[in-house]
Design a protein that fits this description.
Elements (H helix, E strand, L loop, with lengths): L7 E3 L5 E4 L6 H10 L5 E11 L3 H15 L7 E7 L3 E8 L11 H14 L4 E10 L6 H25 L2 H9 L1 H4 E10 L4 E11 L7 H6 L7 H15 L6 E6 L1 H7 L3 H13 L7 E5 L12 H9 L4 E4 L7 H9 L3 E6 L12 H21 L2 E5 L4 H9 L4 E3 L7 E2 H7 L6 E2 H9 L1 H10 L2 H7 L4
Parallel strand pairs: 2-4, 8-9, 9-10, 10-11, 11-12, 12-13, 13-14
Antiparallel strand pairs: 1-2, 3-5, 3-6, 4-5, 7-8, 7-14, 7-15, 8-16
Length: 459
């Protein structure tokens, strides 16, 4: 954009804009912006580090978002523009025909623009806003200095707030609990009644903004403490599960447990949070994801987990394997581990293809079953995608399944509503749905085998 000598371009609905170019125009900006608006409320929006879009296109968005934030208030505004993508200054003042005494919500509009631009990948920027009730007594420099200091301070405050609330995008996730916390159901097979029932599920980030922890973590500034981030995710997911039934499982890394819950008092407060949210600690399981961790003799993983275990909170080992670190966790934590998670997608239950590997898999499953029996624990199989694999595992005493063939991820609200209905589905009905092309396609659309069975009168 080339420098302009204070042209005025009229925007829709009576709004107008004066552009003072990019260099050596501060004095003109101050004089026109302040002198033209004596006795009116003034707003100064300071924008820095604009990336991803052209400055003129960004400027066009500002009146659009301010109009949205102030619809119905009969406010007409004039905009005064100075600067470039490194530092852009936008002065805003009501026009003479605006309704007196009605102040525009500039902060809310800028925040919405900041959030949606980041979420949609359109651009990124930092901003701060200063405001003052302009008067006839103070000089132009005095008034501008007040606006400048206020906008600088607000920008610094925003940077601190965004960094500790994971930018506006991540903050939206924490503010909007229901739609952004999802659960992957775990189904239990009862070998006595030969039926499947919803047991509980793994709760994690999802919904409108994030599909996984990894995506959320990428949205967090690098200098932030990721252990603290994990802790706050855990807290928010617990809050999202308010009064939810069944066994609830939450991912957390061993290092976060060691670093964050370094005293019994902190675990006590976590237990208080569970009780406040009407959740029984005995129905809470912390799933230890496989990440490297370091511990000291006084602050070992085993000691920290004991703090939780005394309240009835138990643990699961994710992607359990003989050579994995999760196996060492199982050995260290002993009776506190109440669940082993296996991924059968890596198993090939076809002896004719690789007889040795087939026998190795059988031996490993048998080892898991024996270990689970010693710990009074369960084995949960993930990613089971066909009936043959399902029944193979059941025949080898694996009775819990976290698999999309039963139900896809659902919001916590849906989980609460459907929990009672997702019980006691006969094995013959599951076999019928999975082996019937038409019913299987319907299952793929609905994402819930219990709903398909009920709609066809099979359950």
């Amino acid at each position: 954009m080339k420098r302009k000598d204070v042209p005025v371009n009229h925007l829709r609905d009576g709004h107008s804009v004066s552009n003072f170019g990019f260099r050596n125009a501060l004095d003109s900006f101050k004089t026109v912006f302040i002198d033209e608006n004596r006795g009116k409320p003034l707003f100064l929006m300071r924008v820095r580090n604009l990336r991803g879009t052209q400055t003129d296109k960004f400027i066009e968005k500002i009146p659009e978002y301010i109009e949205k934030a102030n619809s119905g208030k009969s406010i007409r505004l004039h905009y005064y523009i100075l600067g470039d993508e490194n530092t852009l200054i936008v002065g805003v003042a009501p026009t003479p025909d605006s309704k007196p005494g009605v102040l525009p919500n500039i902060d809310g509009a800028a925040g919405k623009l900041h959030d949606e631009a980041l979420r949609n990948g359109w651009c990124t920027f930092d901003f701060g806003i200063g405001r003052t009730q302009c008067n006839y007594i103070s000089t132009i420099d005095e008034i501008y200095e007040e606006l400048e200091k206020a906008s600088e301070k607000n920008l610094r405050d925003n940077l601190v707030r965004w960094s500790w609330t994971y930018l506006n995008r991540a903050n939206d996730y924490f503010a909007d609990i229901e739609s952004n916390a999802v659960i992957q159901p775990v189904i239990r097979y009862n070998h006595k009644t030969e039926t499947y029932s919803l047991q509980g599920g793994e709760v994690f980030v999802g919904g409108a903004l994030y599909q996984s922890y990894a995506e959320l973590i990428r949205d967090i500034p690098q200098e932030q403490d990721l252990n603290r981030i994990e802790l706050l995710i855990l807290e928010k997911l617990v809050m999202a599960c308010h009064d939810a039934p069944g066994l609830l499982k939450f991912n957390i890394s061993p290092q976060t447990l060691i670093d964050t819950f370094n005293s019994p008092e902190k675990v006590y407060r976590f237990n208080e949070l569970l009780l406040k949210e009407k959740l029984s600690p005995h129905n809470i399981r912390l799933e230890l994801v496989e990440k490297p961790y370091e511990e000291e003799e006084e602050q070992s993983l085993k000691n920290v987990c004991r703090y939780f275990f005394q309240f009835g909170i138990t643990f699961a080992a994710d992607d359990f394997g003989v050579k994995s670190q999760s196996h060492q966790v199982v050995l260290d934590l002993g009776e506190m581990i109440k669940e082993f998670k296996l991924d059968p997608i890596s198993f090939r239950f076809k002896p004719e293809e690789d007889h040795t590997k087939f026998l190795d898999n059988l031996a490993f499953i048998d080892y898991c079953v024996r270990l689970a029996g010693n710990r009074d624990a369960i084995i949960t199989a993930e990613a089971v995608d066909d009936y043959d694999t399902l029944h193979f595992l059941i025949a080898h005493q694996v009775h819990y399944f976290q698999a999309n063939i039963f139900a896809q991820k659902m919001t916590i609200q849906e989980y609460r509503e459907q929990y009672a209905r997702m019980q006691d589905l006969p094995d013959e009905v599951v076999k019928m749905i999975l082996e019937n092309d038409e019913l299987f396609q319907e299952l793929d659309r609905t994402g819930n085998i219990f709903i398909v069975a009920k709609e066809h009168g099979l359950h």
